[in-house]
Backbone:
């Protein structure tokens, strides 16, 4: 009887620890947008609806992966230029983020490395972070094209913003 | 003489207008490529496809048959390892889990977080 009790308590304890400490949350349909529009010119913006995001509750670590080619532009020619001339997405198909969620003065921040075109940059930004059954992470930050070795030709320089705004909206579900 | 010149001018203008319309629609504002019209680089079963080196299929059009293991919003999972994002024209209402399915789409790449191959712009085929 005692052995059985022990076994049950081990199982129960195991279950509790996995639920409270080991839970991972994941999404495949994260939405990431970027806007590089300048007023009075054609909007330069695109949406990616299949960002993969993994959040580990135990360590507060977060990882995200985007396929550059799955950014969708309204204008097909713009998408072609984005992939071929700016992002070189045949050579660098993925953009990645690896970091942590931290709390400072009651506000949540995401901090980590953003890797685009093989170049890594530190990013820190305030986020809306909610944890219930699902985890929701929302926020935005700016990046500069030159930080990632993205060259913007003189001729279009006025039509593309100096700072590119990236916003994200992820709803993560518990991973079984 | 005068009339002749007028016709020339009008003709010239017409050519310019038509040319700009063509450039405008077919170069600057052309439609996105339609998957239906593109040739498949690989045709076969999901299980055979998964045994190949996934990195070689980046950006290629594939035509795959497999078992539907998950339906979520506008995306499907075939054989538990191929994540398929459907084109916005496609409907998932009549699909049932574990049914056989044939899709055509573009391989985006291999997702190492999920260990899945991602396909987008996919359409359902009979």
Residues:
């Amino acid at each position: 009887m005692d052995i059985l009790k022990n076994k049950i308590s081990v199982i129960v304890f195991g279950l509790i620890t996995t639920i409270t400490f080991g839970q991972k949350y994941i999404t495949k349909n994260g939405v990431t947008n970027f806007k590089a529009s300048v007023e009075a010119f054609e909007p330069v913006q695109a949406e990616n609806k299949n960002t993969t995001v993994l959040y580990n509750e135990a360590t507060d670590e977060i990882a995200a992966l985007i396929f550059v080619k799955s950014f969708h532009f309204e204008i097909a020619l713009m998408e072609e230029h984005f992939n071929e001339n700016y992002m070189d997405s045949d050579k660098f198909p993925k953009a990645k983020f690896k970091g942590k969620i931290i709390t400072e003065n009651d506000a949540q921040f995401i901090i980590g490395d953003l890797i685009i075109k093989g170049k890594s940059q530190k990013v820190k930004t305030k986020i809306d972070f909610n944890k219930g059954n699902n985890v929701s992470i929302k926020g935005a930050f700016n990046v500069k094209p030159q930080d990632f070795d993205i060259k913007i030709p003189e001729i279009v320089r006025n039509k593309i913003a100096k700072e590119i705004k990236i916003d994200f909206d992820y709803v993560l579900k518990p991973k079984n | 003489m005068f009339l002749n010149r007028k016709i020339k001018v009008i003709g010239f203008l017409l050519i310019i207008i038509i040319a700009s319309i063509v450039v405008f629609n077919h170069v600057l504002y052309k439609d996105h490529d339609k998957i239906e019209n593109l040739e498949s680089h690989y045709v076969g079963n999901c299980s055979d496809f998964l045994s190949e080196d996934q990195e070689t299929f980046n950006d290629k059009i594939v035509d795959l048959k497999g078992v539907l293991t998950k339906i979520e919003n506008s995306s499907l999972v075939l054989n538990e390892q191929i994540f398929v994002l459907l084109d916005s024209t496609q409907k998932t209402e009549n699909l049932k889990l574990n049914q056989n399915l044939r899709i055509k789409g573009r391989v985006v790449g291999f997702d190492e977080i999920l260990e899945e191959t991602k396909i987008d712009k996919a359409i359902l085929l009979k």
In short: The helical segments of chain A are 2-20, 76-86.
